[in-house]
Amino acid sequence: MALLITDPKLKSWVDVPEGSDFPIQNLPFGIFRYQDQDPRVCTAIGEYVADLFILSEHGFFDDLDLAKGIFQEATLNAFIGQGKEKTRAVRQRLADILDDDLEEWDASELRSFFLIKQTEVTMLLPLAIGDYTDFYSSKEHATNVGSLFRDPERALLPNWKHLPVGYHGRSSSIIVSGDPVFRPNGQFLEDGHVAPIFGPSRRLDFELETAFVVGKNSKLGQAVSTEEAEDYIFGMVLFNDWSARDIQKWEYQPLGPFLGKSFASTISPWVVTMEALSSFVCSGPVQEPAVLPHLAFRGEKSYDIQLEAILETTDGQRIVLCQTNHKYLYWTMVQQLAHQTSNGCAIHIGDLYASGTISGPGQQALGSMLELTQNGQQPLVLPDGTARTFLEDGDTIILRGMCQDKGLRIGFGEARATIHSNAVKA
Questions:
Q1: DSSP-H helix ranges across 116-274
Q2: CA–CA separation, 82 vs 26, rounded Å?
Q3: Known catalytic residue: 326?
Q4: Out of 3.30.70.100, 2.30.30.230, 3.30.70.1730, 3.30.930.10, which CATH number does the structure's domain 29-124 have?
Q5: Residue 13's CB: how many other CB atoms inside 10 A?
Q6: Topology of 132-420 in CATH?
Q7: How far is 326 from 307, CA to CA, in rounded Å?
Q8: Do 359 and 323 contact (CB within 8 A), yes or no?
Q9: How do residues 252-305 score in pLDDT, each as one tens digit?
Q10: Active-site residue identified among 58, 141, 193, 294
Q11: pTM beyond cutoff 0.85
Q12: Distance (Å, whole) CA 407 – CA 186
């Protein structure tokens, strides 16, 4: 094939609607279930999923020396573990198969046997996530939060511009788009009280984030440099790090987030590869003061990914809560991974690293209800005149993300979840 996968001139014989997140230049990876079949590996093209197991059974990948049964796995871990050389070769072969300028295969015969409408399948959690780290990498977000809870003159703590602040979260409560979120119980203080109560959170919030997936193991005691880090980053997903602000406020000192964060985090089902995002690399914020040598990097390491969060209410109201961009993050992914491993911490295939809330300049770019409502002091007014300070049962939050430039659009799909009343008695 003469054209590179990233070339916007490349077209598919599959109908890809205008504005689709999934043109032939994307080809993300996911796990799906169709009818009563076992989970399988797939990619997305337009409004379809392409069943990679069926393609492999018909010999389309025979010359790529892939592990037997690699597309019958219930997660992407084993496939990712084949290494970037092979996963890139699979994407290239898929592009060859789906290319409008088919030379080797008959599109009319191909169409019926490996493409399934996305509306007819169930997308599953794409990864077996062994470890999950959440960072705090947006300067705007950290400044906004610090100003709400401390003197605005000292909103950023002394360490913030010297290292990517993060904490280890619970991988057991990471769920895929469409799974319900149950309002968590926990301890919190009522206004004016000095003793806590226990019950369902009254200040449930979303956090608009992205996350990257580790695609290569390191050894205990091995540090991964910023120059090496990109070899270890396979792809990205959207990430909603649901937060119970009242529980979090009471419990986080002195050790940080615990029950206020560990009840649910929603990710999008499609892992968009770094190769698909390569056309959207850009410069990030200037880092001052200069970082220490283990966090220094050369070149552009940020990504121009447009992000938005949408609220849908039970009575059908729908409003865009915020619009921001991944490029606003102060700390880059290569710095995050380099810092995580700088003490010799081992990382493994499928580990997930979230960005922290991505806020940007201006009111419209605030990535959480905490910021949008100034901790509940300035309610958001919905189209029918009702107000929100934090999220209510029945509310649905939808995260979307996409890159677009010069006729090329690469999207992530959705990370969607609806809040349900607490399932556990307080």
A1: 139-149, 226-232, 245-251
A2: 20
A3: no
A4: 2.30.30.230
A5: 18
A6: Fumarylacetoacetate hydrolase; domain 2 (3.90.850)
A7: 7
A8: no
A9: 988 889 999 999 999 999 999 999 999 999 999 999 999 999 999 999 999 999
A10: 141
A11: yes
A12: 48
